[in-house]
Amino acid sequence: MTEPEGVLLVIGSGLRTYREYLVESIHRCARRAGLGLVLLNNLKPTWQRGYFDEIVHVDVFDAGEMLAAAREVAARHRVVGLMCWDEPVVLAAGELAAELGVPGLSVPGVRGCRDKNRTRTVLTAEGLLQPGYALTTGLDEARAAAARIGYPVVLKPRAMGASIGVVFAGDESELDAAFAVAMGAATVDQSRYGGAAIVEGFVRGPEISIDAAVHKGEYLPMFVARKHTGDPPYFEEVGHVVDAGDPLLHDPQLLDVLARAHRALGVEDGITHTEVRLTDRGPLIIEVNGRLGGDLIPFLGKTATGIDPGEVLFAVATGHRPAITPTRHAVAGIRFGYPDHDCLVHEITVPDNAPGLVLAAPMIDRGTTLRLPPGGYLARHSFVVCAADDPVTCGRRLDAAAASVRVDADPVDPPEPGTAFEMPAGLLDVDEHEGVSA
Questions:
Q1: Where does the record place the ATP-grasp domain (predicted)?
Q2: pLDDT score of 378
Q3: Which parts of the chain register pLDDT below 70?
Q4: Which CATH topology does 6-102 take?
Q5: Can you give the pLDDT at residue 313?
Q6: Cα–Cα distance measured from residue 21 to residue 35, given in angstroms and rounded to the nearest whole number
Q7: How far apart are CA 86 and CA 436, in angstroms?
Q8: Which helix (H) or strand (E) holds 23?
């Protein structure tokens, strides 16, 4: 191509199965606009070479190294936009966008999304429905907070993602163990918000997520995902379903809550992934994430609605109002495979042909040990994605496809008490932690 008019800086690609569809769309948009693409990535380039004009191999999870590399790129190119969809890097990337003077969430916006305690504080001050909550660093603090808030409660790290370290405590007898789980995860968190756990009132009701664009502060919802979680006391996500005709996309109360929350947090330009409980008192925001959803939710959205999240992200990152009108009216869902117990996996076989099957893949390498919470998190061995014309048929197809996954594994003993939790070494990609296997 000829010398580009400017470049779009992408921080972290994610892995091929989970993000290539997004990168492909961004590449197509950049070529159409005469822009170059520069990637800063923690992974050595393989498939990424086909989409980026320049790739800088750097530890993007080290904010200092990432910022130094980005500033060096900005000294050589006119950076016209910045993109990042990797949760641990979102904060530094959002602050960098402000430094470079390109569209972004804004510094208050990205900090409000990344810090769960700040989110609660801002939304409570806005008058939005929120649970009682407290930021704690010690067990005595957590005990006092839970007693003040009232049981049951949920404990969670201040800034981790993917439901890591999120645990339910039904009464005082369960609080100490729950706090140990939450703080165990919070201690692993190396971000500026690590080392603290939030205690908050448990909220009952179905949970959804909404991926939306924000353009100059205008909230533009794209699609709603209905979430399915595993067994308590943990909250690991086992699947999602996106219906292009979901009535929640037109629910005035929900849309008002979402728009008010984003204004209060100061989100200006970007894409957000907001998790909401539908309570008997109205929608309650659990958290707002300053990035696209993980777990292939944007892929489900594209499959169900025809809205291309890559094109939307490109538009808002370059200062344009995106088109979010559906061109398709279908249902798409994903189901993750989890073992019944801790195990050493020898082989995984996924279906290659089933009714409505769109995609299926293993999520780990052979020889990976999977551990369920609290000894480990995201013990997923595979996923299947199916599509249909209606939610009931989609659910049946997901059931059938998931049932056809075959796992050859041997049980392993639980970890010793006090052992730090494990993430599967071969895990390819997960919600909020794309690139974790780097």
A1: 120-318
A2: 83
A3: 1-3, 160-162, 188-191, 193-194, 417-438
A4: Rossmann fold (3.40.50)
A5: 97
A6: 19
A7: 10
A8: helix 16-33
* Amino acid, single-letter form, for residue 357: L
**Residue 434: predicted pLDDT:** 37
Residues paired with 40 in a beta bridge: 11, 56
3-class SS letters over 216-263: CCEEEEEEEEEEEECCCCECCEEEEEEECCCHHHHCHHHHHHHHHHHH
Distance CA 7, CA 77 (A): 7
- Provide the pairing of β-strand 7-11 with 36-41: parallel
Distance of CA 83 to the CA centre of its chain: 15
Distances (CA, A) of 352 to 149, 357, 403, 407: 49, 8, 13, 15
Q: Which CATH class for the 132-201 domain?
A: alpha beta
Q: Judging by beta carbons within 10 Å of its beta carbon (0-12, 13-18, 19+), is residue 391 exposed, middle or buried?
A: middle
Same fold, 6-102 and 207-411: no
Ranges of each domain in the chain: 6-102, 132-201, 207-411
Contact by Cβ (8 Å): 392, 383? no
pLDDT tens per residue, range 199-246? 999 999 999 999 999 999 999 999 999 999 887 788 888 999 999 999
Burial 9-19 (b: 16+ CB within 10 A, else e): bbbbbbbebbb
Would you say 40 and 9 are in contact if contact means Cβ atoms under 8 Å apart?
A: yes
Residue with tokens 């010690």: 138
| Beta-bridge mates of residue 219 | 214
According to DSSP H, which parts of 34-168 are helical? 63-76, 87-100, 107-114, 116-125, 139-149
> For residue 436, what pLDDT is reported?
30
Per-residue pLDDT, 162: 67
| AA identity, residue 332 | A
Tokens of 202: 């448990």
Contact partners, residue 408, CB within 8 Å, separation at least 6? 345, 346, 347, 348
Q: Order of strands, edge to edge, in the sheet holding 382-388?
A: 282-289, 270-279, 207-215, 218-229, 237-243, 331-337, 382-388, 357-362
Give the model's pLDDT for residue 290.
Answer: 94
CB 259 within 8 A of CB 197: no
**pLDDT value for 230:** 80
Q: Does the predicted TM-score (pTM) go above 0.85?
A: yes
What is the CATH code of the structural domain delimited by 207-411?
A: 3.30.470.20
